[in-house]
Amino acid sequence: QVQLVESGGGSVQSGGSLRLSCAAAAGYTYTMAWFRQAPGKEREGVAAIDQKGRTSAADSVKGRFTISQDNPGNTVYLQMNSLKPEDTAMYYCAASRFWFRDIPLRPTDYTYWGQGIQVTVSS
Question: Does the structure show a pLDDT above 90 at 17?
Fold first, then answer.
């Protein structure tokens, strides 16, 4: 059973930056992703990366957020720049054992989930 542990969340003012980290343990993962969920809203995909380094990202974060990895399949990062109040949410790391032709940002495509970490952006 893969275990995912997130770190790096917190509070920042609008325009600031944060870097989230996610470490995977006790299993094999091929594709890893970040999702977020704001109160009263559905969970949405933010960005994803596979072991070959292919990535996908939501339109709302393109040009501001960057997903990267160390030791593919084990550690993934989300560098968040130019943060906006609407980026405020609980951020979740997710992982799948599978290769995808088009790297998905749908929650249902990911099997393993972290506990989540809060990101709060104040105006």
Answer: yes
For the cut 90, the answer to whether the pLDDT of residue 44 exceeds it is yes
Distance between CA atoms of 56 and 62, rounded to whole angstroms?
Answer: 9
Contact 48, 73 (CB under 8 A): no
d(CA 21, CA 14): 21
pLDDT for 54: 97
Q: Report pLDDT for 83.
A: 98
Query: Taking a C-beta distance cutoff of 8 angstroms, is the pair 117, 34 a contact?
Result: no
* List of residues 6+ apart from 71 with CB closer than 8 A: none
Per-residue DSSP letters for the chain? --EEEEE--EEEETT--EEEEEEEESS--SEEEEEEE-TTS--EEEEEEETT--EEE-TTTTTTEEEEEEHHHHEEEEEE-S--GGG-EEEEEEEESS--SS----GGG--EE---EEEEEE-
